[in-house]
Write a structure and sequence with these properties.
With 498 residues, the chain is of the alpha/beta class. The protein has 2 domains: 264 residues, Aldehyde Dehydrogenase, Chain A, domain 1; 192 residues, Aldehyde Dehydrogenase, Chain A, domain 2. It has 16 helices and 23 strands. Helix 13 links the parallel strand 17 and strand 18. The N terminus is likely disordered. Bound molecules: nicotinamide-adenine-dinucleotide. The site of nicotinamide-adenine-dinucleotide has 29 residues, from helix 8 and helix 9.
Length: 498
């Protein structure tokens, strides 16, 4: 039987009044007068309301971001930008529990997990605060050294529209805001309609840290309204997007109007490959949590579990057993390891894949169903699931499910598994479990994915780039490469004899 969470830790009481848009330093209602309610996916209770911003609000926010960019922010010194970001990091540190509770109540990440993200969030801001003072162009030795001197300048792109999903609002928002502001760009941020409260609180803290008006603007609202208006806006220089591949495709079309730059962090169906010589003690929990963490709602989740044939049955049984022992329940409970799915819509999606798997002949070794019972009432809970007898052509082996569902596939040798693992339109994460150094190195080069984790999964650091190949998007987050996503290069020529 699935483990269940019982005791609760105290969660904050949220304000009843709807949260406002932040435009040009002022908190204001959407012009439509409409709001969106947000519900706790563990209980179905309403946890708050925020504005339903639309094109008219986006216009105001972009104008404010443009004024802030031209007026002062692009002319600030790196030290000034660094100072603001470090003060913000300090305030986030001081309010970290409050921020994590917003993520817990709005999108359902377990509190025990959310609290472990402190270093990740604060470390990321400090990393980009540091890099603000390390950006530089180059002096280039051209072929006419007696006649011309040439060098490059790195300049901020301008107004950035950032659009983020719901599956980790705190991390996703900081990941966009910190590098963009560090370069001297200003931003209009549109959080997900499923989870906006954390982002609003982050913006309040940035104001408290001394952010000049208009540097960060927040327009909450629906994707097809506020998001689409931002993506198509003629005065936005770049869209930094994290979300589904389907939406990413729309943004590419919308960018054509003014050839705005794009960075796209999109979906995945990542292979996680276990060789027969893998250490079971680490590979079993590694394979399980590569998918069950965040209830499978992670873009790079290792959902296609390839297991070498001689160990397939035993390994899959151990992963299923691991999944059955995980404590699923209310995210507010300190014991919970796996929370609910974010929404009833997402619950329906995952249930459809349960049905599709069964219909196509896969066998649910564990899970494969919604969880019922008093402790799951009104919440969007499903059991961590391991499907065996999966074929590569099944929907559960090809499509992103965004739920705690492992599709386990046997393989015979390295050449075969490389071909099958790479035969996907996605290319975000990938995992390899082996004790053979040669296998590890060969696989690292063979995978067509932006990240290869060997004997680990989901390791991350602000200094190490993250992003996708193929239809998982383009551009990189983290690392110095991320800063360059917000910069453009200007070449300067000086006639030495003039
Ligand atoms: P989504 O694409 O539905 O929505 C993402 C954001 O885009 C939301 O803010 C939404 O309001 C907005 N949006 C929707 N339609 C839009 C439009 N027409 N124009 C402009 N904006 C629009 O994705 P989601 O369901 O919120 O998130 C889940 C998806 O995000 C998954 O596919 C997941 O893999 C992906 N994701 C990727 C990464 C990554 O780093 N690669 C990280 C997290 C999530």
């Amino acid at each position: 039987m699935q483990g269940a969470a019982t005791s609760s830790t105290a969660s904050p009481v949220l304000e009843a009044s709807p949260k406002l848009l932040l435009i040009g330093g002022k908190w204001q209602a959407a012009q439509s007068g409409e709001t969106i309610e947000t519900r706790n996916p563990s209980t179905g209770e309403i946890v708050g309301h925020f504005q339903s911003g639309k094109a008219a609000d986006v216009d105001l926010a972009v104008a404010a971001a443009r004024a802030a960019f031209e007026g002062h922010w692009s002319k600030t010194t790196p030290f000034q930008r660094q100072e603001l970001l470090l003060k913000w990091a300090h305030l986030i540190d001081a309010h970290f529990e409050e921020l994590t509770w917003l993520d817990v109540l709005e999108m359902g990440v377990p509190i025990s997990v959310a609290l472990t993200r402190r270093q990740r969030v604060i470390g990321m801001i400090r990393f980009y605060a540091g890099l603000a003072t390390a950006l530089h162009g180059e002096t280039i030795d051209n072929s006419m050294p007696g006649e011309f001197s040439s060098f490059t300048l790195k300049e901020p792109l301008g107004v950035v529209g950032a659009i983020i999903p719901w599956n980790g609002p705190l991390v996703a928002a900081v990941w966009k805001i910190a590098p963009a502001l560090a370069t001297g760009c200003t931003m209009v941020l549109k959080p997900s309609e499923e989870a906006s409260l954390t982002v609003i609180r982050l913006a309040e803290l940035l104001q408290e840290a001394g952010m000049p008006d208009g540097v960060l603007n927040v327009v909450t609202g629906y994707g097809h309204e506020a998001g689409a208006a931002l993506a198509a806006h003629k005065d936005v220089d770049k869209i930094a997007f994290t979300g589904s591949t389907a939406t990413g495709r729309r943004l590419v079309e919308a960018s054509a109007g003014n050839f705005k730059r794009l960075s796209l962090e999109l979906g995945g169906k990542s292979p996680n490959i276990v060789f027969a010589d893998a250490n079971f003690e680490t590979a079993v929990p590694g394979a399980a949590m590569a998918v069950f963490a965040n209830t499978g709602q992670i873009c790079s989740a290792g959902t296609r579990l390839f297991v070498e044939a001689p160990i397939y049955e035993e390994f899959c049984a151990r992963v299923a057993e691991f999944g059955r022992k995980l404590v699923v329940g209310n995210s507010a409970s300190a014991e919970t390891q796996v929370g609910p799915l974010v929404s009833t819509r997402q619950l329906e999606v995952v249930q459809r894949y349960f049905d599709a798997g069964a219909r196509e002949g896969a066998v649910a070794l564990s899970g494969g169903e919604r969880l019922y019972g008093a402790q799951f009432e009104n919440g969007n809970f499903v059991a961590p699931t391991v499907f065996t007898h999966v074929r590569d052509d099944m929907a559960i082996a090809r499509e992103e499910i965004f739920g705690p569902v492992i599709s386990a596939l046997p393989f015979s040798n390295m050449e075969e598994v490389v071909a099958r693992a790479n035969a996907s339109e996605f290319g975000l994460g990938s995992g390899v479990w082996t004790q053979n150094l040669g296998t590890a190195h060969k696989m690292a080069r063979a995978m067509r994915a932006g990240v290869v984790w060997i004997n680990c999964y989901q390791a991350g650091d602000p200094a190490v780039p993250f992003g996708g190949y193929k239809e998982s998007g383009y551009g990189r987050e983290s690392g110095i490469e991320h800063m360059h996503e917000f910069l453009q290069t200007k070449s300067v020529w000086i006639n030495l004899n003039g």
